[in-house]
Amino acid sequence: MRYFLTAFISMGLLWSAAFGQEEKEPAYGWRHQSVANLNFTDNNFDNWEQGGADSWSWQLEVPFKFVNIQKGFEWSNSGKVAFGKTKVGDQRARKASDVIKFESLYTQKLGVYVNPYVAVSGQTQLAKGYKYTADTSRVISGFMDPGYFTQSLGVGYSPRENIRVRLGAALKETITDQFPVPYADNPETETVETFKFEYGADTVTDVSLQLRDNLLFTSKVSLFSNLQRFDEIDVDWDNTFTAKVSKYLIVSLNIQIFYDKDISRRRQLKQTLAVGFSYSLL
Fold this sequence. Notes:
Layout: H1 2-19, E1 29-43, E2 55-69, E3 73-88, E4 94-108, E5 115-124, E6 129-132, E7 137-141, E8 147-160, E9 163-175, E10 195-212, E11 215-225, E12 234-244, E13 249-259, E14 268-280
Antiparallel strand pairs: 1-2, 1-14, 2-3, 3-4, 4-5, 5-8, 6-7, 8-9, 9-10, 10-11, 11-12, 12-13, 13-14
């Protein structure tokens, strides 16, 4: 419950901040953006008396967005592909980042405060995921194992171009193959399920704030409830600060909070601070 309340209060703060930005008249037609970010870190030690271990890490991230804005409708397609590895000392290289996300959102503009929408989204990973112990490792996930898909229908509200809120009924499917536990399997049954279907309600809030000319903050809060119990609300809160130091050099901080009681009873947190190169593909 506390994760839901934290996300809900944060959405309110982001809403207030977004209203402080100047609204611009939208330009009709297609808008597209895709920026590739490559970050690399390398540490080497030779006769270093203070101690330390050789290490390196790299990450490639390609977010994209294609939006068709018209007077009567808006069709937005967005997502990202990210992958990276890290190596410390004599350990084998390990995966540090791996995600494929996509969302397609169609909104019909009725000229009122709220407008109907339909949306589909999907998420999975590229490579195998491992759980490491002191001496061993075992595979616990892979491409489309698990894979998450959501379809929703409802109403949305966009008081400003930089803030969008929507609420609707939703269907959610979890697909697995070799690793149904803990993603799709129901522990209360004797059989092992590789597919899980849920229906309920979801709400999504998108905020994009241009804090300075070279500093951008984006945040997306997604909540899904199967309407069974209040403490089973799934939370996915993704926040990114991006500072453009020069034409090709950027600094970014990503903080993601994830909670799904079926996977873990504790919240999951991932934080990534990166310095690297950025190149606009579109």
